[in-house]
């Protein structure tokens, strides 16, 4: 069986250019590796899961679509769908154009600061352009792609979905959930059509609808998309919900990737399963000991609030995975010790087998409800299925005890009892590789990640930085150790020299021309909002109030 890779892409705003560089390098490396002479099927690497938040959701959708159907578009490091979208196409000038040049429609002034038309156009062209003529060519599938790919995108549901839970002694507690997601499985053979990708294109735009900066996005959702336990009745199916940036509540959906993997692997073949986590954040602390009550003015509070909100939506799944890996490693260590003691005769297999049998009968029987206490449902896995899984997971220990022997059966059942009692039956060790970077090495990280939109040079810088960081990870000797993803047979291709003077660029360091473009664009948009609200009185309001106020705010912003 080939090695399977699940990729999670964090939210990034303009730092999507960094993630684009990482993804290009990863795809190029896997393409070279899978094409190399002598590489066996078991040594090949296939991407079968992609999850993303915000900008990462758009990138995940683009990569999945192009890998499955249009691999020929990856012509080179500086001519491919990721580079063309994140470096060449999306910039401040386009975001400030609030009138769609094709339709002539104006962006509603009170719905967003920037135009969402650019993002909508990118989704339409990259994910639906293939189908525009009405007929489309046969798919050209990338060497890195599995035949089917599970896609997941985080969403923030502004309406909310209700779940009800019984209260004691009577009544019901209603919990409204706003953290949302969309997951779909797309394939070479069954999903190459506009209906499938129109839904994913809309979801990718919704996932990246940064609050206030871009307008919210409506999506039709089906009841089947949501967990059934406690879900309150729906009036319509599908129902329409309004969404904003998925990265607000979950910016790094590693847990979603694990859930999609479980649907594929069913907790088997974990030896050939790997995870890749791509983020432009996380290598530096966001703590700020200097922040205090005295300097907590509006500007400082807004900046700190953004840092706090983003920080709490990051790395939660990673931390959970690390903690779970520690529990599983402890379980494996105890299993190894048990096998050794059975081999030495220190533990008698007969009595152990009888004890384990009794425990498993209890653990795999659904308890009945007693009194008013709710009883959780046990897993769907049967005892026979669980035993086969343990035999596969611990095949080396079982072989050392003699497969089919009383000792090996005692080992299997005891380990299964340990695992079930610890609630680890649906958990797997996750081998996660991280390709993250310090924001001090990026050009577009300031202004909560929007700075990269100011100049193509900044996005080129961050794209190449992504390629370089990915290269360091992919060629690290650790990757070639036993049970790791490598060794990966690839030769890195040309990368442009990185302009180190752009490292850690701040808003205050921008040129006068760049500052002026931003100032004029924001002031123009604010004037449009005022004009929309008060009509005739907007001109005197502009001159007397808005202009001086905006100048003061922008001056403060550029001084920070």
Automatic annotation (TrEMBL):
Which residue intervals define the domain PNPLA in the entry? 7-258
Q: Which GO terms describe its biological process?
A: lipid catabolic process
Per the annotation, the residue ranges of the short sequence motif GXSXG are 52-56
Give a yes or no for keyword Transmembrane in this entry.
no
Q: Which domain of life is it from?
A: Bacteria
InterPro entries hit by this protein? Acyl_Trfase/lysoPLipase, PNPLA_dom
- Keywords associated with the record: Hydrolase, Lipid degradation, Lipid metabolism
Q: Where is this motif: DGA/G?
A: 245-247
GO MF term list: hydrolase activity
A Pfam family of the record is Patatin
Q: Which residues form the active site?
A: 54 (nucleophile), 245 (proton acceptor)
Q: What is this protein called?
A: Acylesterase/phospholipase RssA
């Amino acid at each position: 069986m080939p090695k399977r890779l699940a990729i999670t892409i964090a939210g990034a705003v303009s730092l999507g250019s960094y993630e684009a560089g990482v993804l290009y390098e990863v795809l190029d490396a896997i393409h070279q590796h899978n094409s190399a002479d002598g590489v066996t099927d078991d040594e090949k690497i296939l991407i079968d899961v992609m999850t993303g938040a915000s900008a990462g959701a758009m990138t995940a959708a683009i990569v999945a679509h192009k890998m499955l159907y249009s691999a020929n578009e990856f012509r080179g490091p500086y001519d491919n769908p990721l580079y063309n979208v994140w470096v060449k196409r999306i910039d401040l000038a386009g975001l400030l154009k609030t009138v769609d040049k094709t339709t002539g429609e104006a962006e509603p002034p009170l719905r967003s600061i920037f135009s969402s038309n650019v993002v909508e156009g990118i989704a339409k062209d990259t994910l639906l352009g293939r189908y525009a003529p009405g007929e489309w060519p046969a798919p050209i599938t990338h060497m890195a792609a599995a035949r089917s790919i599970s896609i997941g995108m985080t969403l923030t549901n502004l309406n909310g979905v209700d779940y009800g839970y019984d209260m004691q002694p009577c009544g019901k507690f209603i919990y409204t959930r706003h953290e949302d997601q969309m997951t779909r499985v797309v394939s070479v053979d069954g999903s190459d059509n506009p209906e499938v990708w129109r839904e994913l294109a809309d979801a990718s735009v919704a996932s990246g609808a940064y609050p206030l900066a871009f307008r919210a996005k409506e999506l039709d959702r089906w009841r089947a998309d949501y967990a059934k336990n406690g879900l309150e009745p729906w009036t319509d199916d599908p129902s329409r919900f309004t969404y904003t940036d998925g990265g607000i509540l979950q910016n790094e959906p590693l847990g979603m990737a694990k859930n999609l993997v479980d649907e594929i692997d069913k907790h088997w073949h974990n030896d050939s399963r790997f995870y890749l986590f791509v983020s432009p954040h996380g290598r530096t602390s966001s703590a700020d000991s200097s922040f205090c009550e005295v300097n907590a003015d509006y500007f400082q509070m807004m900046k700190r609030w953004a840092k706090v909100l983003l920080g709490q939506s990051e790395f939660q799944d990673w931390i959970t995975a690390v903690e779970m890996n520690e529990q599983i490693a402890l379980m494996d260590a105890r299993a190894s010790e048990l096998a050794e003691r059975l081999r030495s005769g220190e533990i008698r297999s007969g009595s152990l087998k009888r004890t384990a049998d009794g425990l498993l009968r209890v653990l795999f029987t659904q308890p009945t409800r007693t009194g008013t206490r709710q009883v959780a449902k046990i897993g769907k896995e049967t005892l026979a299925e669980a035993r086969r899984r343990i035999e596969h997971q611990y095949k080396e220990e079982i072989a050392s005890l003699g497969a089919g022997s009383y000792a090996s059966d005692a080992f299997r059942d005891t380990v299964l009892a340990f695992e079930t009692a610890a609630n680890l039956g649906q958990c797997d060790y996750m081998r996660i590789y991280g390709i993250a970077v310090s924001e001090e090495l990026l050009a577009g990280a300031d202004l909560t990640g929007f700075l990269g939109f100011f100049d193509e040079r900044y996005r080129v810088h961050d794209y190449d930085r992504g390629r370089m960081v990915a290269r360091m990870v992919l060629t690290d000797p650790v990757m070639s150790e036993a049970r790791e993803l490598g060794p990966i047979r690839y030769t890195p291709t040309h990368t442009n020299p990185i302009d180190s003077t752009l490292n850690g660029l701040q808003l205050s360091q921008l040129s006068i021309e760049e500052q002026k473009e931003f100032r004029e664009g924001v002031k123009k948009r604010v004037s449009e909002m005022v004009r929309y609200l008060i009509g005739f009185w907007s001109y005197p309001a502009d001159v007397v109030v808005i202009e001086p106020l905006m100048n003061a705010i922008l001056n403060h912003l550029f001084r920070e």
